[in-house]
Task: inverse folding
């Protein structure tokens, strides 16, 4: 671990509201990707796990994009919350309709940012279901850990969707909340499948 990692933790633990929970969801997703990539690399190192090589290579080939995107998602969440704060801080002489519109649009952005993290967590869990049956057996607990991190990322992201949609109304609120609930349920169902496979392979 290096000073840069500590800097991120110090930033999160400061009294500033950002980076907050949504950003942590993105960073948690990045850790889930990193563990999955490690498992993929340890799988392709041996012909013993040849049946897992295709999906493992696919994961390795997209590693930079997935890690970079996860970090960007964490940054996007912080920026989205800052936009909400900026909308509320518009000058007092700002037209009421203009201010209300700005707050609503910023709030939609603040709900949409963690929703994207949730969607990406679901995508990662889907990839893990393809890797877990044939990955290097010695890395199964690492892959299980990656799946738990992905689920944690999804749950944290969902919290941050809902904390914002409570300030919205109408179809926009309903649409965002329905997408959130659907994706979170998908994640929960997928991890059950992953857990069944890896525990069966280990004989637990």
Result:
């Amino acid at each position: 671990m290096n000073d840069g990692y500590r800097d991120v933790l110090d930033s999160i633990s400061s009294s500033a509201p950002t980076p907050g929970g949504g950003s942590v969801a993105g960073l948690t997703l990045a850790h889930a990707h990193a563990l999955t990539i490690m498992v993929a690399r340890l799988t392709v190192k041996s012909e013993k796990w040849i049946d897992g090589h295709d999906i493992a290579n696919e994961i390795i080939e997209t590693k930079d994009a997935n890690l970079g995107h996860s970090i960007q998602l964490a940054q996007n969440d912080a920026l989205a919350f800052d936009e909400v704060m900026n909308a509320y801080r518009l000058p007092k002489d700002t037209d009421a309709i203009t201010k209300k519109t700005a707050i609503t649009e910023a709030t939609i952005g603040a709900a949409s940012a963690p929703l994207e993290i949730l969607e990406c967590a679901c995508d990662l869990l889907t990839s893990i279901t393809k890797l877990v049956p044939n990955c290097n057996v010695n890395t199964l607990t690492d892959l299980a850990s990656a799946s738990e991190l992905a689920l944690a990322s999804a749950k944290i992201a969902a919290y941050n969707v809902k904390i914002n949609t409570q300030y919205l109304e109408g179809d926009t609120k309903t649409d965002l909340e329905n997408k959130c609930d659907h994706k979170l349920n998908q994640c929960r169902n997928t991890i059950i499948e992953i857990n069944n496979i890896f525990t069966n392979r280990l004989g637990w």
User: Anything to note?
Assistant: The longest helix spans residues 96-131. The radius of gyration is 19 Å. The chain has one domain: 19-202.
